[in-house]
Amino acid sequence: MGPQILIVDDNPVNLKLAGDLLEIEGLTVRRALDAETALEMIRENAPALILMDVALPGMDGLTLTRLLKKDPATSNIFIIALTSFAMKGDHEKILAAGCDTYITKPIDTRIFTIEIKKHLMK
């Protein structure tokens, strides 16, 4: 069992697609539909990498990212924003919140797992 990846996305289709693609590659994946559930899961067993939807119900993904990056126990988790926000300024806003990088949705299934594996190797 290698490093764990947590996917946080309120869209069940996106959650399934991303998770299935990673599991096919032999990676260990956990899933959360909202930030509050994700936070509980992270406190129980911190993943190596989080794929974080930006627009979530309740607490949004950038707020959760800020909380995680402020906490010494979780500040080293690599966080990739998964977002459909690709307008000018969105990239800077995502990085300013503490995300390490971002992937735009819809995800490109041909390169998605390559990108994730690249970040797991860091």
Automatic annotation (TrEMBL):
<dbReference type="InterPro" id="IPR011006">
    <property type="entry name" value="CheY-like_superfamily"/>
</dbReference>
<feature type="modified residue" description="4-aspartylphosphate">
    <location>
        <position position="53"/>
    </location>
</feature>
<dbReference type="Pfam" id="PF00072">
    <property type="entry name" value="Response_reg"/>
</dbReference>
<protein>
    <submittedName>
        <fullName>Two-component system, cell cycle response regulator DivK</fullName>
    </submittedName>
</protein>
<keyword id="KW-0597">Phosphoprotein</keyword>
<dbReference type="GO" id="GO:0000160">
    <property type="term" value="P:phosphorelay signal transduction system"/>
</dbReference>
<feature type="domain" description="Response regulatory">
    <location>
        <begin position="4"/>
        <end position="120"/>
    </location>
</feature>
<dbReference type="InterPro" id="IPR001789">
    <property type="entry name" value="Sig_transdc_resp-reg_receiver"/>
</dbReference>
<keyword id="KW-0902">Two-component regulatory system</keyword>
